[in-house]
Amino acid sequence: MSSTEQLSPENPIYGPFFGVMGAASAIIFSALGAAYGTAKSGTGIAAMSVMRPELIMKSIIPVVMAGIIAIYGLVVAVLIAGQLDTPVTYTLYKGFIHLGAGLSVGFSGLAAGFAIGIVGDAGVRGTAQQPRLFVGMILILIFAEVLGLYGLIVAIYLYTK
Amino acid sequence: MNTKSKKGNGGGGDAGHNKLSKQQSDDSKDYSALKVVLFYCSLIVFLPVVTFFALKGYVLERFFTMSEIKVNIGSAVGAVIALHIALGLYVYRAYFGGSKTQSKQD
Q1: Buried-most residue among B39, B54, B60, B87 (CB within 10 A)?
Q2: What's the predicted TM-score (pTM) here?
Q3: Where is the V-ATPase proteolipid subunit C-like domain (chain A) (predicted)?
């Protein structure tokens, strides 16, 4: 009885697979980007702090922004995981939507994390020599950050479908 | 030769004392900076999580007519907004607080 329900084209047994992959890819790729951003800007902070240790509070900002990328992925992964269900009630269409949402926030977070890492490294090293670069570094970091935010917006919009 | 070595010793001891007090003031400054950074980082990490689940429970409890998806969306948007408010507070503090301590030092 239930096997005939599961085998209908709308609710196949592999329907939730796509949703699970969406939730997993949301957090995996976001965390990958955040880790790259943290590590790359962390080497810049470590090199800069040797000469200007009083600037540590200002130079932590790229690391914090890289961490926020991972929180975007976490939010989408939690949203998708809340909707996952058995194949009887979880349609294949929902699975595709959730896979798309997870991939959009995941790869946007990966790109934003790369940008934050590279900008944070160079910006922190430059701020140690010219403190007026700080405002420019913050602006560039914010523009890198909104790339991840765009992915989050698209993911939430997809999620409402 | 004896006086010369004594002089050198005295000078070295004085410099060592200065270095020690400077190190102590540096340590207290580092400690206060660590407290501020730790506070803001925990705010940025935990505020969105708390906001998400508080908003979800609260909104679900208040407005039963809302569908579950709408509640989820509302709590996610609220969490992201809270996250950015916390980040803005940190950037403000790092920009103005950092310059204030520097001018005080001078």
Answers
A1: B87
A2: 0.81
A3: 21-80, 99-158
